[in-house]
User: Which sequence fits this backbone?
């Protein structure tokens, strides 16, 4: 998937481009080790750990990472994965067109009202821009109440809790139709 852009009249223009694991590692290191990124589970990572993790994603045919920009400035990380091969293998029955997703908003000292919701909306639009995507699958930590509310705001419906090796997660799904109903154009 190439670079995409989306205008948010209240915030600016979001652009999503493929992540460069070498060039973007230092930036990502600051994000994933920040206290607000505790649910990303990389708090103790060194720079080389971050670079290695994103090199592995770049080498995978089932997992991709993207950098989200707002008016040209990096502001979020997005991962897209095939849940039949990554993250959720054996934990649910994948359907054709299922796409897994993670996103992380960069820490900021000056929060903007509605910003994170605008980010997840841009992420979902990016994923659904691919006609092969029928449903987005997420598995956030059950304790991450803030992301559950954001997921619900864009149309996700929780199905059940699942136990992953690293966390107890809330398996949730959002079809294209659910997203379009929750976030009208």
Assistant:
């Amino acid at each position: 998937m190439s670079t995409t852009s989306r205008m948010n009249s209240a915030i600016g223009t979001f652009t999503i481009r493929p992540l460069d694991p070498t060039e973007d590692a230092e930036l990502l290191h600051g994000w994933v080790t920040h206290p607000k990124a505790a649910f990303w589970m990389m708090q103790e990572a060194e720079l080389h750990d971050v670079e290695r993790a994103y090199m592995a994603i770049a080498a995978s045919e089932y997992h991709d990472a993207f950098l989200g920009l707002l008016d040209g400035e990096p502001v979020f990380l997005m991962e897209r994965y095939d849940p039949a091969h990554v993250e959720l293998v054996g934990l649910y029955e994948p359907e054709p067109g299922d796409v897994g997703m993670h996103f992380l908003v960069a820490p900021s000292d000056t929060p903007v009202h509605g910003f994170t919701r605008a980010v997840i909306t841009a992420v979902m639009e990016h994923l659904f821009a691919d006609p092969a995507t029928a449903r987005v699958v997420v598995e956030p930590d059950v304790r991450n109440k803030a992301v559950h509310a954001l997921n619900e705001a864009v149309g996700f419906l929780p199905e059940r809790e699942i136990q992953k090796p690293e966390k107890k997660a809330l398996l949730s799904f959002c079809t294209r139709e659910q997203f379009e109903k929750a976030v009208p154009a």
